């Protein structure tokens, strides 16, 4: 994940659910007998995932999905026909780049894996990519991670969650669809924020509409005072013309959003325009983050239709089965992000079968695009773009809703990728959600 990611587990646009498991941590013989099927050649696929460290508890929710991916691959007629038995080998990244590299080296050099999956954090993938290139090992990240060019490598690195640049373009398209013709973007001055803002600006620019960009210095997990930047934003919006055709995009992290909205609530010009956000965080429901207590920020977001955007795969039979089995095993629903790991493992295994059992990274990578399009993923139809990123995905738009004495998030609109269609819901619908604890 490039930054914090929120994923809804159910949406009125097309309700969805998600997974179960406990993969094999130890090696087994290179051949495994299978009752009634003779002996199969073992092929190992590695998983590098945060099972310890800051995100350890979150990462452990993925164990049922890893085991389900292993058993489903081995139960497939294709694996039986090829005489292949898959074994998922798991190592923890310790939620760090150094840990991810050590885990990848152990899996490749000691366990002989032919591909890696997981690596959901930007720092993990960034630390491992040079090593993967050197060893010619193919990897499928289960998250979008950073949009930095060095991580967008179509040769042997793929990412199956909707990428940040795709999300940025689609959020801009939503605004254009809603009739906004002038845009201002206040964004973090880091790789994620600048690239996200640039995509929004490009979309408006291509449509012939003006855009203003206002950067802020990232301060997370502390929160700075963004009064000067909000004043600059106000000037830019005034120059554009603060009217019903003007929209402000908020491309920041948790806590930073509350501080910016707090100052915006006191500005007459910024109070006259619509606001949209790359992500909405749980703290917006209360207006509290750390030492910050800014309920006026929450009230401003409610009054100005501040919507966030998230992945929204349509419900299908595979997703329902995975979700129900994982929930039963864990005793609670897992975070939806882990479903992408199941799909990543399925695609890696199917590429091995399509490649005739080849394990060279370049050979496997050549089959990934066709495998992805021929597979019916739990997370919805899939194809890859020229950067090795998922090219499309269904999305949902959620915002604040005041229900009696409390605030909650509800879905207000959806985007369907296949027909390329935005749809506004006739009534906002409650959004059950789990947030990644990286927030």
Protein model, in words:
The protein has 13 helices and 18 strands. The protein has two domains: 217 residues, Rossmann fold (3-Layer(aba) Sandwich); 190 residues, Response regulator (Rossmann fold, 3-Layer(aba) Sandwich). The chain has 439 residues and is an alpha/beta fold. β5, α5 and β6 form a beta-alpha-beta unit. The longest helix has 18 residues. It is elongated, with a radius of gyration of 22 Å. α9 packs across α10.
**What is the count of distinct domains?**
2
Please give the number of β-strands: 18
Which architecture of the largest domain would the CATH scheme give at its second level?
3-Layer(aba) Sandwich
Name the shape in a single word. elongated
Percent in strands: 15-25%
By secondary-structure content and strand pairing, the structural class works out as alpha/beta
Report low-confidence residues grouped into runs of 5 or more: 1-37, 433-439
Give the radius of gyration: 22 Å
Write the CATH fold name of the largest domain.
Answer: Rossmann fold
Give average pLDDT, whole number: 86
Write down the CATH class of the largest domain. Alpha Beta
Largest sheet: 6 strands, mixed
Determine the number of helices (DSSP H or I, runs of at least 4 residues): 13
Give the end-to-end Cα distance, rounded to a whole number of Å: 11 Å
The CATH homologous superfamily name of the largest domain equals Response regulator
Give the helix proportion (percent range): 25-40%
